[in-house]
Fold each of these.
Amino acid sequence: MSVEVERKFLCNADTLKTLQEIGAVCLGQRQFCDQYFDTPKFDLTLRDMWLRKRKGCWELKCPTTSNGTEERSGEQSKAAALCSRYKEITNLPEIQLRVKEVIKDVCADRETEMSPSQEDESWLSKINLVCFAEFTTVRRSFTLEEEGVQVDLDQADFGYHVGEIEVLLPEGGDLQSALEKIERTAGKLGLTGDQRVEGKMHVYLKSNHPEHYAKLLSEHIL
Ligand code: V4E
């Protein structure tokens, strides 16, 4: 299991040039389709849990257990507030276990024996999971001299363009150092503003599931 720490930013006409100027190395471009799943009542996402299938692989993003109140200076807190962090679980039996734990009521009177095969999707209907979002992204990725920092520029098929500065931490890794790396990279990219930038899912839900989007906003999940 690892923890993804990331800061999103809005791209502009100069973003590519700036990346070149700061010595970012392009790792290439790839395209992928993401499918996100939840119960019809959105039991997972209302707990800030995001179940996704990308390129045939499953992934569950969950809130980290630390509550974000680690001791920080004012500047550090501001930088941390612009970043999101999620545990990433990619082991399918563990994903199935975590999801079942959350939707116990749904599972109570159902047969929920599950196959751990990545291709066999029968477990989804057994616990009433349906696809609520599907979109394709073209992603260009860059690495920087700063160790372990990756910058992704995403273009979603519904017209949203967003960048992210990302550090992947092993569980128990040094969060403060990851936040500092992201902050330094943001500085090099000339990012100003202290507003959190919307991710692709924000924009997708806003137009495709506006009621759920409003609920997630009111619960401070988005
Ligand atoms: C919406 C959401 C999640 C779903 C995945 O979102 P994101 O990380 O933006 O997608 P993507 O394609 O960049 O994934 P990657 O390739 O990096 O794995 S996971 C958590 N959330 C909630 C959330 C939030 N509340 N605020 C922000 C800024 N982002 C996500």
Note: The chain has a mean pLDDT of 89.
Amino acid sequence: QELSGKCVGCGAKLQTDNPNTIGYVPPFKLTENHRFVCQRCYYMVHRTLVEDQLKIGATEDSTNKDILHSLKLFEQRLENICSKRCIIVYMVDIFDFDGSFVSRLPFITGNNPVILIVNKIDLLPKDINIGRLYVWLKNQCEARGLTKIHRIHFVSCTKDYRMGETKADIIRLVQYLNADVYVVGCTNVGKSTFINRLLSNTVEKKTGQELLNYLGLKQGQFSLTELKRAFKDKKDPQLTTSCFPGTTLNPIRIHFGRSHSMYDTPGIIQPHQITHLLTSEEIKMVLPKKRVRVVSFRLMEGKCIHFGGLARLEMLQGKPFFFTVFMSNEVKVHPSTTAKAEELLETHVGGLLQPPISWRKYKELGNFKAKEFEVDGVGWLQSSHDIVISGLGWVAVTGCGRLKVRVVAPKGVGVFLREPIA
Ligand code: GDP
């Protein structure tokens, strides 16, 4: 049986036939008179039943194929969207800037204005210099071809940091250009959280007349409290937010102001992020929830640092350097000697070296690949480079002279050098 509606969480077309494909609703639910969320979104909201099968690309089952197919379709659709006049709210995750930057975006957006939202600012160390960060970000965007940015906003959706002025800026541009808004970004940058936050307190600021207009009612019938309650009931329900990649499938239309719409679009998948190799439990460990505790190590030749069992950095050649690790506090970081690295992994993966959560899961990561870098230090006061492991975090290198290092990470995971963020 096919239902006419769409899931109010992810936007997938609802159906009651196949629990293994997107948009499934159990038939017994049909007797209940409410708007539906598909079973998948239901599980994601009620975290107890989140299954590993939600992991994109992990297995070749039909769910994953469907998701990948709809994401491909979405990329094509995005090109159509951008061919008309609209405002692109483009979100990146500051903690995984390189992993969350959609490289094709600058070529898709055309002449439409782009508001860049840099989310999860709460995860960076407190002493970070926002002015320097701004310059760093502009350089990074320009190097990737994103040169026409209308405005950059540093926000934290979960901590409600700078959300008010961001919202005001978007509204101003919507009114000025009389255009709809598309929220675009890679999976997991926080798009759904951002939109929920934007919409959450709108009712408080509405006048009685605005509420009457919105609800299509005549004056004098209801009190302001009743109108606000009616508005909240009618308002689009909360979108599904989740720490699992790829949970919003079709663009979801949301009323924004009286005559405009905002669209939450499916997260664009970046296959080089390490999260795509991990189980739901491991993803929770790798994605930081709190401000990261930064740890520094002084390494000399023959030493290495393990990032759980997911990757390691080996010091090959050079005078001792400082390596400052910016990763989730739940990724266990340990120094050791390079010669004993494999032995240490065999005994401690799943325990002292987590994630992965077990030796079996470690083996499932597949082959590991080594990548070597040579860098020139710029002194003890300033890092010369960040070594980024896509989706996991980065290591800032500080020291004098020439340094040769090797990073060992699962095959397919992006490992690269960049200008230092801090
Ligand atoms: P989407 O896939 O882009 O829609 O991302 P979601 O909104 O589902 O968020 C992905 C994960 O990032 C969730 O676990 C959120 O709680 C988390 N998240 C979103 N915004 C922030 C933020 O500002 N700070 C932090 N620390 N986490 C955030």
Note: The two ends are 55 Å apart (CA to CA).
